[in-house]
Amino acid sequence: MPDNAIEVRDLTKAYREVVAVGSISFEVRRGEVFSLLGPNGAGKSTAISVISGLLQPDSGDARVMGHSVTKESMAARRCMGVVPQEVALYNDMSARENLVFWGRMYGLSGRNLERRVDEMLKAVGLTDRQKGRVATYSGGMKRRVNIAAALLHTPQVVIMDEPTVGIDPQSRRHILDYVKELNRQGMSVLYTTHYMEEAEELSNRIAIMDKGKVIACGTRDELVRLVGEQARVDLAVTGEPEEAAEAWRKVAGVSRATVEQGRVAVLAGDSNAVVPRLFERAAQLGFRIGSVEIREPNLETVFLALTGRALRD
Ligand code: ADP
User: Which domain holds residue 247?
Assistant: First the structure.
């Protein structure tokens, strides 16, 4: 078995003059959840469409479980389940009928098909609602049927394109938990999102995409270290904040202490090591700390540092 579930090499795809994906490379290791994180228009869907065989690349290639998506597309497709952004279901049929239809397309039949449909309905929490027409489902329920359809043929890799956009919080929670459960069972996952929290919660590694390029790739902590971002601790003190800032500047691990709007803002690489020292020094000097707020750097700060723009539109 190949080490990488997906390998993307120098992949380029343009729509006329718009270069949606410009020579990107990354790999999804076997057994990991890998996220493409980027704002709308970054090129995530285009990348996913090429990897899943829906679009031909202009140049470059992708391999899924070792199979080239351009030269061995059938073999590649058998290894992956794809959850596209657009829900593709028959509204007049029930969830179960939709899944049976999909299962037949994948070549499943008889007992095996019925068993897989049952398993997948249960997995996405729709066993009780399986006989209702899809037209009566919420957006989140439809998305869950789509996920079930993508997994019927027991693929080794699943690719999900922003599966939580525009759905209710309950379905969102369900989908995130299910991605984690799938991964625990050994599934390799390529996930795209523009929500920083989802990428942080789910991923072993993350590629940050912007304007058709992968601008950084690594674990969450590697990405944060890459831009040298520090935690910020805001403290309200009794007495003169300037005096507190002056004293805290000399505390080990503090790289900056300034007064902002009456509070002391301390920058530190390791907030959890530094905060107790700030308290200790405050006690020695006889002033009290009334409130403490720690803001750890996150992927939003990383995106801002790399592009000068916020991740959210
Ligand atoms: P994302 O999934 O990150 O939002 P997309 O891959 O959908 O990004 O879009 C990348 C770029 O390609 C955007 O500039 C978008 O406007 C453009 N684009 C996407 N699909 C098409 C298309 N079918 N025709 C023309 N341009 C497109």
Answer: 229-296
